[in-house]
Amino acid sequence: QAAEADGLFATASASDQKRVGDQAAQQVLQKYPEVHDARARHFNQIGQRLVRALSASDRKTWDFRFHVLDSPEVNAFALPGGNMFMFTGLYQLLSTDDALAGVTGHEMTHVRLQHWAKANVKQQERSAGIGLLLGLFHAGQAVQTIAGLADNAIGLKFSRGEEDQADRGGLENMVAAGYNPQGMIQLLQALEKVSGNGGSI
């Protein structure tokens, strides 16, 4: 059984990540109303400019789509595969395109470096380890990745190392797209002013 378990925990392919992310995006859009006004167009323009600055390989592999959600929460997150979500609470807090590009590039880097997929493998390994101890492991458990993904994505905590990678990748992306790197500092300063943010971004 242990050998059987070992073979199941490969990182999900890009196509699998996009499939899971698209299904989770539908869950998110059922929970929060999506905004389709000038804010949404603005966020999409920034996102598309960042996408154009990525490598041809990244542009081909991931399907980046940019959504604004009507919620006072100060947060943004990405789903595996490339769906990006910005809450209006964060959007209105950030006063420059550079700061918006900073958070967007950060979240896009989580997608490009497949941080969700790697975290999912670790979660599967933990779950399977418990199941193996109890003699209850079944292969089907390893592929149940959709249920509750929307809730998990919004509050997902990556490791400090992964957050550092996202900061570096986001900074490189925004500079390549012609944004001022000061935007990252503006982003951090804005978040520091908001009590109870909890470092969700």
Give the gist of this structure.
The protein is of the alpha+beta class and 201 residues long.
Mean pLDDT: 82
Strand fraction: 5-15%
The N- to C-terminal Cα distance equals 39 Å
The structure class reads alpha+beta
Helical proportion? 55-70%
Low-pLDDT residue spans: 1-8, 130-145
Kindly provide the radius of gyration, computed on alpha-carbon positions and rounded to a whole number of angstroms: 18 Å
Number of helical runs?
10
Number of strands: 4
What's the helix-strand series?
A: HHEHHEEEHHHHHH
Shape: globular
Numbering strands along the chain, what is their spatial order in the largest sheet?
Answer: 1-2-4-3
Describe the biggest sheet? 4 strands, mixed
What are the salient characteristics of this protein?
alpha+beta; disordered N terminus; 10 helices; globular
Structural features, described:
The protein is α+β, with helices and mostly antiparallel strands and 201 residues long. It contains 10 helices and 4 strands; from the N terminus they run ααβααβββαααααα. It has a 4-stranded mixed sheet, with helices on both faces. It is globular and about 40 Å long. The relative contact order is 0.18. Residues 1-8 and 130-145 have low confidence and may be disordered.
List the helices and strands and how they pair.
Elements: H1 2-6, H2 14-31, E1 34-35, H3 38-52, H4 56-61, E2 65-69, E3 76-78, E4 83-87, H5 88-91, H6 97-112, H7 115-134, H8 149-155, H9 160-176, H10 182-192
Parallel strand pairs: 2-4
Antiparallel strand pairs: 1-2, 3-4
Helix pairs in contact: 3-6, 6-9, 6-10
